[in-house]
Amino acid sequence: MATSVSGASSTIQCDTSAYEEAVETVELDWDNLGFTLVPTDYMYIMKCSEDGIFSEGELRRYGPIELSPASGVLNYGQGLFEGLKAYRKEDGSILLFRPQENALRMRMGAERMCMASPSVEQFVEAVKLTVLANKRWVPPTGKGSLYLRPLLMGSGALLGVSPSPEYTFLIYASPVGNYFKEGSAPINLVVENDYPRAAPGGTGGVKAIGNYAPVMKAQKKAKENGYSDVLYLDSTHKKYLEEVSACNIFVVKDKIISTPEIKGTILPGITRRSVIDIARAQGYQVEERAVSVEELLDADEVFCTGTAVVVSPVGSITYLGRRVEYESKGVGAVSREVYSALTRLQMGLAEDKMGWTMQIN
Ligand code: COI
Fold first, then answer.
1. Positive or negative CA dihedral for 346, 349, 354, 359?
2. Is 357 a domain residue?
3. Where in the sequence is N6-(pyridoxal phosphate)lysine found (predicted)?
4. Which portions of the chain are predicted below pLDDT 70?
5. Total domain count for the chain?
6. Taking a C-beta distance cutoff of 8 angstroms, is the pair 251, 301 a contact?
């Protein structure tokens, strides 16, 4: 069977004969989706060998994969991941949001990590196939989305420290709702002063798998103390904002929106970029620059952005024992505005003047 997939400017035929689409309706509590793994029907796998060229991939039933104990990813952390979402429109069709941006970011990360990577076209095609094969898991409009998790890993065996002789690109999917347990309510962050997330010249600016385990210690401590997550400072001065464990940060003061600039130690978030563009289109002044922790504490409003967290308002920040509450200052006006503009676009409820969505028929 061939399925038509149209993007902003193209229509591509996807061969979907490799899988048998399940037709039974998914029995899931769509009203209470969180950000926990719900295994779906299929995953996509594509490999490349030493020539660096990815051959045609395939859909397989979702499940465990075989990996050499000597693989580059297990031994030396040679791995990258991405995150993007598919949304169901009211007419039942499905929209992807800026998948090419994830493809480009993976290619950028692969270059930094000496890995071969799929082309933008291969990446996007694979995402579309994964969504189509799992389309019964895309939540109804407004109830959540299907989260796609592309992985790129050094799967070839080796002993010394060097690039892997083989790479595997894999995508799995899970329906998701809110990332934080607070739901859409404001989150409470604590500023981490002892454990920086990234250092200049390191890999903080790419989506390397190794960027995430090191944040877990600070995150665990924060959660034990009742906080939702951790906000990291720059490792040089311990003064400027970097990012939260899984999202970017924005502060608002006197209607001016500021966010840390991209300089190699924070992730160039696709939601971050989209929110900047949306806010500017709505008439806000948005500054990408070094933002100090003092400015954070003096802000009118603070919010986080990310594929998983979407746009999450921050209710309080605690820094060196001092807690600042934003709710008393009328939290959330700007974040509500950009959240609404972004999600209406993603769900196909507003006209996509930006050309960011890609419809899968
Ligand atoms: C995403 O927002 O997609 C992310 O990659 C965050 C993830 C660490 C949960």
1. positive
2. no
3. 207
4. 1-19, 328-331
5. 2
6. yes
